[in-house]
Amino acid sequence: MPSVVLAHLRERGGNQAVARNRRREPLKAGAQRIGVSEPTLMRMERGDPSVSMGVYATAVWLMGRSEAIADLAAPEYDQGALEDAVRAAKTRAVRKRPSLYGAAQTPNRLQHDPANGGKS
Q: Is 102 left (phi over 0), alpha (psi -120 to 50) or beta?
């Protein structure tokens, strides 16, 4: 797992612990509200990545922030897809247009050709 993801999970877990403590809610009561055991809540508050997404989602819902769950994978925040779209647009923009005269032809100009009486 990328270290940045682990850092975000730890931060999220710490925020959960702060929220529970601000409510003066004991660990046991917090675990019961979320529907998990006390050890699971402790792991979540430490940012343990093995805690299920459902537990995190329930905790977020109890905090009144369930709309944030949908934003986690919202298409408008998908950097990979945005970068692909920009790359494809750049590829289309760089495409060379065909020449009006073709590669082997020259413009309609009289060329000096001594073997043909001075005309091409």
A: left
Helix axes 53-62, 38-46, angle to 10 degrees: 90
Residue 65 has phi, psi (to 5 degrees) of -120, 30
pLDDT tens digits in sequence order for the chain, 120 residues long: 899 999 999 999 999 999 999 999 999 999 999 999 999 999 999 999 999 999 999 999 998 998 888 888 888 888 888 788 888 877 776 666 666 766 555 555 555 555 655 555
pTM equals 0.63
SS3 95: coil
**Structural domains present in the chain:** 3-71 (1.10.260)
How many helices (H) and strands (E) in the chain?
A: 6, 0
Give the residue carrying structure tokens 């590829």: 91
